[in-house]
Write a structure and sequence with these properties.
This protein is an alpha/beta fold and 238 residues long. The chain contains 6 helices and 15 strands. Bound molecules: zinc ion (ZN) (2 copies).
């Protein structure tokens, strides 16, 4: 038994290094996430460890969320609400970019919220989150004064959505921001269909090019933001 212990330590060490290496390869070049960063009027970043969610103003005393983080206790989200003197019941709507666990962790803390996701993502969300509104590609919805437009960008998952609200384009895991200011596609390792993800990003760039002035900021779940639509259109032109 005593002899097994050092080997166990080696195995645990190697596993830890392996996990560390996977995370470095996946996220090492990412722009850092800054908690509390204001991306546009009424749009705030909430850093929940390695992933971010976003808090959007809806009406006085009411907010919406883009995703709800990894933490089931929602410490970062509840703290962000508390800084504004808001209770969990002030979350009127949640817009889910996709159904992976690190984006839906805290959803159960906001039972009063309307929950939106693309129709194609419902199978992945079944039994985990109660979606109240299934969205179609191009659908415009809203809560209070907030207007949210949904774009289907299948690839990372079949029902991955990008949302445009208040001049910010929220990618979830469909893209990321590099430290050098370029946009990168979804991390292959964690994506269902990486080729389809790249095709979806190209299609989105073409769709939004005529409306480029509407897009001020590109926001990503696992990295800091980029400015303007250009990083997306440059990526699409490669
Ligand atoms: Zn994901
Ligand atoms: Zn993620």
């Amino acid at each position: 038994m005593k002899r097994a212990l050092p080997w166990l330590a080696v195995i645990v060490g190697v596993l830890a290094l392996g996990v560390g290496a996977v995370f470095y390869v996946a996220f090492g070049r990412n722009r850092p996430i800054v908690d509390g960063q204001v991306l546009a009027p009424g749009v705030e970043t909430v850093k929940d460890g390695f992933v971010s969610a976003f808090l959007l103003d809806v009406a006085p005393g009411k907010v919406a969320l883009i995703d709800c983080g990894n933490d089931k206790q929602g410490q970062a989200l509840l703290a962000a609400l508390q800084r504004r003197g808001l209770p969990p019941s002030s979350v009127a709507a949640i817009f889910l970019t996709h159904g992976h666990g690190d984006h839906i962790g805290g959803c159960g803390l906001f039972p009063d919220a309307q929950v939106y996701a693309l129709q194609e993502e419902l199978p992945l969300l079944a039994g985990k989150v109660r979606v109240t509104h299934a969205l179609r590609d191009g659908e415009v919805t809203g809560a209070g004064l907030l207007r949210v437009e949904a774009f289907a960008t299948p690839g990372h998952t079949s029902g991955s959505a990008v949302y445009l609200a208040n001049g910010v384009l929220f990618f979830g895991d469909s893209a990321g921001g590099n430290k050098d200011g370029t946009l990168m596609p979804a991390v292959r390792l964690f994506s269902q269909a990486p080729g389809q993800n790249v095709a979806s990003l190209r299609a989105l760039a073409a769709r939004l090019l005529p409306r480029a002035r509407e897009v001020r900021v590109l926001a990503f779940a696992h990295s800091g933001p980029l400015e303007g639509l250009q990083p997306l259109t440059r990526f699409a032109a490669q």
